Amino acid sequence: MDATPFLDRYRELSSLDEKKNQLIEELLQRVASLEEDFKQEKLDHARETRFNRDIQLHEMELMQQISQIKTIMAREPFVVVLLDGEGSFFKDDLLQLGEEGGRSAARQLYSGLNSYLLKQLPSINSPKIMIKIYLNMKSFGDLCVRAGVISDPTILQDFIRGFNETTSFSEIVDIGSGKNKASDKIQETFQVFLYNCHCHQIFLGCASNSEYARFLDETTKEGDLTGRISLVEGIPFDKELDSAKASYRIARFPDVLRSSKLAPAYMAPWKTSLPSRSMLTPSPSQQPQNVPSLSRTSTNTSTSGICAPLPAPTASKISGSPASDFQTVRSRPNGTTAPKTVERNKYGQRVDRLDFKSIPRDDLNKLKKLKLCNYYFLLGECPNEENCYHDHDRKLSRTDLHILSAIARMTPCRFGLECDDPDCIYGHRCPQSEPGKKTCFRGDTCRFEPVAHGIDTNIVKVTKI
User: According to the UniProt record, where is the region Disordered (predicted)?
Assistant: First the structure.
């Protein structure tokens, strides 16, 4: 029997065993690989589980922090009002009341802002209202006097004092007469509050000029911020702000803010109605700072004055005067025959015959507190007697009249040393300067012009009027 077929069959079976063993080895290798992948997957899953848990915890912490931040941001909400005094200031009737007018203006403006917020921005919960008004007090006071709104710049000072005392967050800021302008200060302050999370609205009262127009146009480019801004329109905006104001809310407070610009007048409108006064009688354009602070009533000077200087008081009269020395001043008789004169030095400069240093400061301060009407007591008549807020009934001694005339001289006359009005009671030379000295201790801040310093007080000629 041939063994070859059996050998072939054996070889065939051996080949099958090899294939089987190879298949088993491959299967075992595959299982080992899958087991390794499974282990890695378990590790990854465990890591992701821990990561997700950490993320959830971190998210919870973040949400808690956001809630805390929102609570903090909701605390102490406020709105800020930034007004340029040139474009937004108070009405004449408030300004003329001095300190009491300042208090009333602060209360009325605060009330108007509150009503506006309740109507336009009800989502703001009881915000504080911060009011900042910037102006050059000296320049604005002079403008008010020239426009006939007030008789003396000290009334403006009293108004500002009353305004600043009324609420904790209301103030009128004197920017001075240097290079800093109200627009510069307002723009810098505006930028500080614009991104403040506690500031929910900025009320911007600006003057109509190209500087504010550029500033508002730049702010408009950040469209999401324009809703945080309201423009306060007192005096109507000029064409420079036409394009800008369309992007903002417009707030108006006509009951408290003036709606027209101050127009400087050569003299007060009622001036021509006084037949006993010259048409050339000046009105003040400045008020000196080189004297003790005076109340608005103590320097309520008129555009005319007494015919001749009052004699200097004696020591006995300053310390006290007998009852018989008191008198009530009335209108002067029309039948005056004595010629009126203006005294001048050798240079032709007008000389005020009044020794300011002879007046004790205590007496000066005492008199200014009486709120006297200078028109009435120095001129004998008041052009606005029915509506005058100053005292007309007090009895004054000659010493008091002397001091009151000195107070009147502390306000510069607009015609200066060339003034020819014999009835002018304003100052023609700085009361604190000495002959030959071209300045006083106030330096450049003195309200009198440089030429009004160092005046020769020796009288050499008299001009009869």
Answer: 277-345
Judged by DSSP in three states, 222 sits in coil
Residue 217: which pLDDT band, with cuts at 50, 70 and 90? confident
Q: Roughly what angle, to the nearest 10 degrees, separates helices 99-120 and 153-166?
A: 50
- What ranges make up the beta strands (E) of 287-446? 326-327, 341-344, 396-397
pTM of whole model > 0.85? no
Residue 214: φ, ψ to 5° = -65, -45
- Report which of 148, 96, 141 is spatially closest to residue 268, judged by C-alpha positions: 148
Instruction: Name the nearest CA neighbour of 202 among 221, 228, 182.
Output: 228
Query: What is the arithmetic mean of pLDDT over 275-293?
Result: 38
Q: Is the Cα dihedral 305, 310, 313, 317 positive or negative?
A: negative
Residue 357: pLDDT above 90? Answer: no
Closest CA to 333 of 307, 311, 352, 309: 307
b/e map of 141-167 (b: 16 or more CB within 10 Å)? bbbbbbbbbbbbbbbbbbbbbbbbebb
Q: Which helix (H) or strand (E) holds 297?
A: none
User: Phi and psi dihedrals of 323, rounded to 5?
Assistant: -60, -30
How much of the chain, in percent, has pLDDT values that exceed 90? 22
Domains of the chain in sequence order: 74-251 (3.40.50), 266-331+339-465 (no CATH)
**Burial of 267 per CB tally in 10 Å (0-12, 13-18, 19+):** middle
CA 248/CA 238 separation, integer angstroms: 16
Residue with the bigger pLDDT between 355 and 185: it is: 185
Rounded Cα gap, residues 106 and 80, in angstroms: 14
Average per-residue pLDDT in the chain? 77
Scanning the structure block, which residue is given the tokens 């300011």?
A: 356
pLDDT in tens, 428-446: 888 888 888 878 887 777 8
